[in-house]
Please model this.
Amino acid sequence: MIDIEHILFEFERLPQYDTQLSLQITADGHGGEGRLEELNYREKDFNVFAYNLPYTNSIIRDLQMYRTRVMRMKPKTCYTYHQDPTQRIHIPLITNDKCFFVIDDQVLRCPANGQHYLIDTRKKHTFVNASFEKRLHIIGCITSLD
Model:
């Protein structure tokens, strides 16, 4: 089980950000925020911890994640329907039942219960926050397991 409260405590030290903040950067200091094709790096290049977050970084390391970011989704928002080049692990920190993925037209909810979720974001997907509250996830890429 992942200790969500411990992560949220460590996150109190992070700088202010709007929608996302890289927890892993490239060796030359570039962050992984934004669309990959606009970054001129590969996802695996984002593998250096950006902040001293001992517990959070240990989880990222144990799950073998890279290009890991904390992503805040504002209330009443939705991402475009898209595909990513890799699968992603999601660690929900703050969410509710009005927040959900749509993956290949199937709805998936991931509660903030201390679990991590492997999401095959190589499939067409989107995410919807249809609530009046923010949603907060740690999201990191992984090497394909298939």
Helices lie at 4-11, 54-62.
